[in-house]
TrEMBL record:
Keyword NADP: no
Annotated site, Raises pKa of active site His, chain positions: D144
Listed GO biological process terms: 'de novo' IMP biosynthetic process
Pfam short name (any one): Formyl_trans_N
EC number(s) reported in the record: 2.1.2.2
Function: Catalyzes the transfer of a formyl group from 10-formyltetrahydrofolate to 5-phospho-ribosyl-glycinamide (GAR), producing 5-phospho-ribosyl-N-formylglycinamide (FGAR) and tetrahydrofolate.
Record's protein name: Phosphoribosylglycinamide formyltransferase
Domain Formyl transferase N-terminal: 3-181
Gene: purN
SUPFAM superfamilies: Formyltransferase (SSF53328)
A GO-annotated cellular component: cytosol
Species: Azomonas macrocytogenes
Length: 209
């Protein structure tokens, strides 16, 4: 079994998708959910599923380094093989990222490397893009810059409003994040020296599924 720790800051709909995809005796076991915000709704989702929760308030620390060191200690007390960022809205230090090299995944609401950063849906609509989507990637020190593992692509509809686009991208996130986590847990997905690998073969940056 692959023990997983999930980090959240908010609603936790991706956490819910991961919880719902867990099967008894399956390869993935969510050991704990950690939030930097006490009011994150995802904490209630975890509790409802009987998963241990922890809160670590970044505002209680003098700087990013101190927060990340405390976060590492909480995570490592669970001895996870994989750490999953699911709407965890804190920039992580290089020390943190290197500590979890090859076992830290994030989901980002764009077709990386396009539209790194925040407010992706609005920027995609403003630019008049024909396609949008989401990406699961290994986390490296470059913000939203690590090797892409899995992407889902959707066409932007003519005249589509932002709420509709957000809803459709979320639905894709909830499909591909459990898939990527399962592949990792099964030993099929890993980070090689030149990028993400699936079943021993390099994944193209646009690893559409
Ligand atoms: C998701 O859409 C995720 O892709 C995004 O935050 C949302 C969290 O939703 N992450 C980022 O923007 C990371 N920079 P959720 O809490 O309902 O899973």
């Amino acid at each position: 079994t692959c023990n997983v720790v999930v980090l959240i800051s908010g609603n936790g709909s991706n956490l819910q998708a991961l919880i719902d995809s867990q099967e008894p005796g399956g390869p993935v076991r969510i050991r704990a959910v950690i939030s930097n915000r006490a009011d994150a709704y995802g904490l209630q989702r975890a509790q409802a599923a009987g998963i241990e929760t922890r809160i670590i308030d970044h505002k209680a620390f003098a700087n990013r380094e101190a927060f990340d060191q405390a976060l590492i200690e909480i995570i490592d007390s669970q001895a996870p093989q994989l750490v999953v960022l699911a709407g965890f809205m804190r920039i992580l230090t290089q020390a943190f990222v290197e500590h979890y090299a090859g076992r830290l995944l994030n989901i980002h609401p764009s077709l990386l490397p396009a539209y790194k950063g925040l407010d992706t849906h609005r920027r995609v609509l403003t630019a008049g893009e024909a396609e949008h989507g989401c990406s699961v990637h290994f986390v490296t020190a470059e913000l939203d810059g690590g090797p892409v593992a899995v992407q889902a692509v959707i066409p932007v509809q003519a005249g589509e409003d932002i709420d509709n686009l957000v809803r459709r991208v979320h639905a894709e996130e909830h499909r591909i994040y459990p898939l990527a986590v399962r592949w990792f847990a099964e030993g099929r997905l890993r980070l090689g020296t030149r990028g993400a690998m699936l079943d021993g073969a390099p994944l193209p940056t646009n690893g559409h599924v």
